[in-house]
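Q: Hi! New to this. If I give you a protein sequence and the SMILES for magnesium ion, can you show me the bound structure?
A: Yes, paste them in.
Q: Okay, here:
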Amino acid sequence: MSSEASVTHVDPTEARSAAVMLSVQGVGKRFGGLAALSDVSFTVHEGELVGLVGPNGAGKSTLFNIIAGVFAPSEGRILLEGRDITGLPSHKLARLGLARTFQLVTLFPDLSVLDNALQALHRHQQGRFFAGLFQARAYREESEGWRERAREALALLSLEALADQPAAALPLGQAKLLAVAIALATQPRVLLLDEPAAGLSHEESSRMMDLIAERVKGRCSVVLVEHNMRIVRRYCDRAVVLQFGRKIFEGAPADMVHERAVVDAYLGTGDGG
Ligand SMILES: Nc1ncnc2c1ncn2[C@@H]1O[C@H](COP(=O)(O)OP(=O)(O)OP(=O)(O)O)[C@@H](O)[C@H]1O
Ligand SMILES: [Mg+2]
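A: Thanks. Here is the predicted structure of the protein with magnesium ion bound:
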């Protein structure tokens, strides 16, 4: 495929010398008697696109939610640029530079595409807004800056021509691109994406992933939760594979197929790509 060649992967030796943006250290999570995660560790470097992959029930969403501050781990720590963020609530994490998308796209259908992005930025900046309530002029000027930022984020995901359309008019593929643009507008240092291509046609899915690899990755580190091995192999710089809550592989996506445990985990699931 022609676009395959255009996806640039981070050289693993380069990645090792790059700054550590996110560090997951010995994370465990129990739900009652069930160990959903056990002693999972991995790091994400600056400029990397890391795929978090594994069969159903492996613990991907649980780990994603722990990193995103939805719930605290039973054991272990999460560091964002060296700072311990374990158990911090999502809105605090957002201000520290960790953004996420949701598997189900939540947009305001009656608002325009641009206003959806602006709305998210206002929410993101809410703490500062209240602090600056009596500085109306500064606030107005800042709002102009946000508009600019929102437009830039839309342009990155090739949505600028749709800025004035109501969000309800967007087909799923573009609604999902908008969700990524919204997360990007907050200028995160690390972006967590939960199966951004799920439910999309093959073509839409490739478009989404091309844009993430070519335009989003250059702006922040990306953690991609994905059960589709083909997508991870094609787009990710590194893969972390979970099974039954444990890390069974970490390394170059191309090497996943040589790892017996990974092959076994995916055998018969039909989505091994
Ligand atoms: N809130 C919860 N309460 C109890 N058990 C949970 C909870 N969330 C997840 N689990 C269990 O933890 C394990 C890991 O689930 P998780 O949703 O993290 O897997 P996953 O890798 O995201 O799977 P999928 O590919 O199906 O999305 C499963 O056995 C699941 O049933
Ligand atoms: Mg899941």
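A: The chain has ten helices and ten strands. Let me know if you'd like me to explain how to read the tokens.
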